[in-house]
Amino acid sequence: MVSLKKDGIILRKTTLDFEIEGVLNPAVIQDNGKIHLLYRALAKNNFSSIGYCILSDYKTIETRLSNPVIIPEFEYEKHGVEDPRIVKIDHLFYLTYTSYDGINALGTLAVSEDLISWQKLGIIVPKIPYKKFKLLAESQGEIGEKYRRFNKLPPTHKKDKEVFLWDKNVIFFPRRINGKLYFLHRIRPDIQIAGMENIEDMNPDFWKNYFLHFKEHIVLSPLYEHEVSYIGGGCPPIETEYGWLLIYHGVHDTIEGYVYSACAALLDLDAPEKEISRLPYPLFKPEEEWEQKGEVNNVCFPTGAIVEEDTLYIYYGAADKRIAVASLSISELLKVLLQYTS
Questions:
Q1: Which residues, if any, are the signal sequence (predicted)?
Q2: Phi and psi for 103 in degrees, rounded to 5?
Q3: pLDDT band at residue 116 using 50, 70 and 90 as cut-offs
Q4: 285: helix, coil or strand?
Q5: Angstrom distance (rounded) from CA 243 to CA 173
Q6: Which pTM does this prediction carry?
């Protein structure tokens, strides 16, 4: 087992309208000697925006804005902007989040040079109905039964509205790999990967070809008991000498509902679609009261991480209500992971 310390809650909700119900699932990046958190802020009726604060060290708030930095502005995000992740590539910050219109939840991209002013580039995953997805993806043989179970109709289905495949947890790798941009995304139950020369390349023909070869783009599938229901990307991949360290979330169903745990895997540095290893047990799971009770019970949802010398700090949403951090030795984690190479 990997030794891990839960350092506790670092951010709670306030009485401000935009975050009166909770704060959770932060994008985290270190830049110019500061740690920046862009977090999902929950208003009444489950409307989300993205708040912003700066830490002076890994868990001490230095500055916290009293207004969100990203709010719903367009029809495709009218019910909220959710669960941001962030990387910096070639002097540009890439912030991905899930835009929710009340029916469809789809991965979206905004870019910035200063972390304050953001240019929204819109939805970057495909708008594809389940029937078309199934037709294309099964050109190479049947896809798993869970794809039908999770995606045939979303829980908010309305017959008079267009309904697309939910495609969430879009997370860029923090640099180009062999000249290409890569991102992870999640169509339940698996984690998939997409690679392209430029963002503009992701046109309808790109996605049609992608789905015709869909199985080739699946990076990780549920394997162990703690992730048996489905998995999804967590923190942006961290480059190490042994591979890309991926902290993701695994979900399993219980009589009390789903339990979300933080998990760890290694992907190949030059071919990130290849899994090298993964832990056969959770890196950490809901055990504290503040992880077990909240807006959604039993949730540890990792979305951001930083490395300082040998320490990996993992930031996560706790029970969809508050933000916490856990720390561990990255060298110890890598040593343990390498015992489970595939």
A1: none
A2: -130, -50
A3: confident
A4: coil
A5: 12
A6: 0.97
